[in-house]
């Protein structure tokens, strides 16, 4: 829901990840060499020099690709595409990569074997722990489902922003693995999404490209209630990015059941008077504003946009409080 601009703190996390991967997975280059030699020798139907050159590129780029930043991806994609053009289907084509002791032939798409050699399964466990430290505790696409990781288990999916079947060299890149819930990852599948979590400062991307606009009206009860939550772009208008995001991740239906969250915030806003705000501010040590008091009453919600991924539904709740301020409710 909100992008992260890469700074020295983020680079520190990326370096920590890369060092841990290098320690836990010391044989990546050796395994890639074995794969290259075996596939080239046992798959007569495939252009073996193309396979060899592709894997050799990855061997020379490893481990730098672990921390390759988005601003450099295009140059790398072009470099790998030059080789890929010689055998365009080689990544998704099934190749023989080994034979068991009983003579059973092992076959799989080449990209899957590259990802295996990169030790993706180990890398995701290392990254899971680091993403928790970074406060990435909800799906970055919907901000509804928590992404939990503990005791070296990762109870969520890492979405490859640049799909692994097209760009396996980014298969374990820190900046390409985005915490995602099963629902959003399932909707995305192998399609491309505009929502790259990490951006470089010179990419001029809007960090917060979306805005929830709840429809609230006075009904029969004592407080205003929410009837619908609209998902829009940052200027509260539908944009290409918000439309694409909704189409891919079905945000409207995910949030249809969340109208009570908005109603609750409005109810608290109407119940909170100046003396209560003052007393709460003094007791709990926050600046004396109604927005802070309502946020505190809403599970101690942070009003800092950078904290959106720390708790589910933070984006919706922050945007509701913004709307109250703009509408003069608080
Ligand atoms: Zn999700």
What is the gist of this entry?
The chain has 330 residues and is an alpha+beta fold. It contains 13 helices and 10 strands. The protein has helices spanning 8-24, 28-42, 48-61, 70-84, 110-117, 120-133, 182-188, 240-249, 251-256, 259-271, 274-284, 290-297, 314-326; strands at 4-5, 94-99, 105-109, 149-150, 153-154, 157-160, 177-180, 198-199, 210-218, 224-233.
Topology overview:
Blueprint (H helix, E strand, L loop, with lengths): L3 E2 L2 H17 L3 H15 L5 H14 L8 H15 L9 E6 L5 E5 H8 L2 H14 L15 E2 L2 E2 L2 E4 L16 E4 L1 H7 L9 E2 L10 E9 L5 E10 L6 H10 L1 H6 L2 H13 L2 H11 L5 H8 L16 H13 L4
Helix pairs in contact: 1-6, 2-3, 10-13
Bound molecules: zinc ion (ZN).
The site of zinc ion has 9 residues, from helix 7.
Features:
330 residues; alpha+beta; 13 helices; binds zinc ion; two-stranded parallel ribbon; two-stranded antiparallel ribbon
How would you characterize the overall build of this protein?
Helix content is 46%, strand content 14%. It is an alpha+beta fold and 330 residues long. A two-stranded parallel ribbon has the order 1-8. The protein has a two-stranded antiparallel ribbon with strand order 2-3. It contains 13 helices and ten strands. The structure holds zinc ion (ZN). The site of zinc ion (ZN) has 9 residues, from helix 7.
């Amino acid at each position: 829901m909100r992008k992260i601009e890469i700074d020295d703190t983020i680079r520190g996390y990326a370096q920590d990840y890369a060092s841990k991967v290098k320690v836990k997975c010391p044989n990546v280059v050796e395994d890639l060499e074995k794969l290259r030699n075996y596939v080239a020798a046992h798959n007569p139907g495939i252009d073996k020099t193309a396979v060899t050159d592709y894997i050799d590129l990855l061997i020379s780029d490893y481990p730098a690709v672990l921390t390759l930043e988005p601003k450099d991806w295009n140059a790398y994609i072009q470099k790998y595409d030059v080789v890929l053009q010689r055998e365009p289907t080689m990544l998704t084509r099934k190749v023989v990569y080994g034979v068991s002791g009983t003579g059973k032939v092992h076959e799989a798409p080449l990209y899957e074997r590259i990802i295996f050699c990169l030790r993706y399964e180990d890398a995701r466990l290392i990254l899971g722990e680091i993403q928790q430290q970074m406060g990435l505790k909800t799906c970055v696409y919907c901000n509804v489902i928590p992404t939990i990781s503990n005791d070296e288990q990762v109870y969520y999916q890492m979405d490859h922003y640049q799909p692994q079947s097209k760009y396996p060299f980014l298969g374990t890149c820190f900046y390409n693995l985005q915490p995602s819930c099963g629902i959003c990852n399932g909707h995305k599948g192998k399609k491309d999404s505009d929502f790259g979590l990490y951006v470089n400062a010179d990419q001029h991307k809007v960090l917060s490209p979306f805005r929830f606009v709840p429809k609230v009206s006075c009904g029969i009860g004592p407080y205003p209630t929410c009837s619908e939550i609209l998902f829009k772009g940052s200027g509260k208008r539908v944009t290409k990015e918000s439309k694409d995001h909704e189409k891919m991740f079905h945000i409207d239906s995910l949030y249809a059941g969340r109208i009570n969250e908005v109603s609750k915030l409005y109810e608290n806003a109407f119940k909170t008077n100046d003396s209560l705000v003052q007393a709460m501010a003094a007791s709990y040590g926050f600046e004396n504003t109604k927005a802070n008091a309502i946020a505190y009453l809403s599970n101690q919600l942070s009003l800092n946009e950078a904290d959106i991924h720390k708790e589910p539904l933070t984006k919706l709740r922050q945007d509701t409080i913004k709307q109250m301020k703009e509408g003069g409710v608080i």
